[in-house]
Amino acid sequence: MKILYAEDEKQLSMAVAEILKIEGYQVDLAEDGEEAWDHLVQNDYDAVILDIMMPKMSGMEVLEKMRENSDFTPTILLTAKAQTEDRINGLSAGADDYLAKPFEMGELLARLGALIRRSNQYRTRILRKGNIELDCETNEVRTTMSGLRLSSKEAEMLALFMKSEDVSYTLDELRDKLWENENDLETVKLYLSYLKTKLKQLHADITIEEDGGGYRCVVSATK
Question: pTM higher than 0.85 for the full model?
Fold first, then answer.
């Protein structure tokens, strides 16, 4: 497994890289956003870890540039601020997870491993339901008329719903199935909101509806 770790605190970066290598990962390091972007252009990674506060180009800018260029590599954002606004901005830009600094190395390893496992789990086939098709390899969801790319987390959530029509999931159940070490249900709500908005943009005939405290996938009746 190959990881890009972008962090401008050199001592921390080297320490984290050594532990990742001990855990069996190959690691490329970047000390600023421009160097991180150069690595991303030249290499393929199983996951990317970006510190938000970096010189030359912020982690958020690198992430936005990745998604604009159809690079949907699973990405964790590191932030020194645990504020809701930072989390919302990161998730909106396409982050798959976030971790507030200072962090425990064990938690980073757990989140990284879970992210890669889920990414591999869902990248197995094409899923179809109603008038939409989800490509789990590219995270592209499309109808006969249009298509768009989802973040890895959005694609995982949609795949779960598509595989489980009429099964209702509470926010706690969605969190437990799609996240590890995540306690804030607001994160789950954010992804639900993003996913529902994108399905509406596609004029999909499947919707994610609230159902007695849970959420389930509903296919509209043929008109």
Answer: no
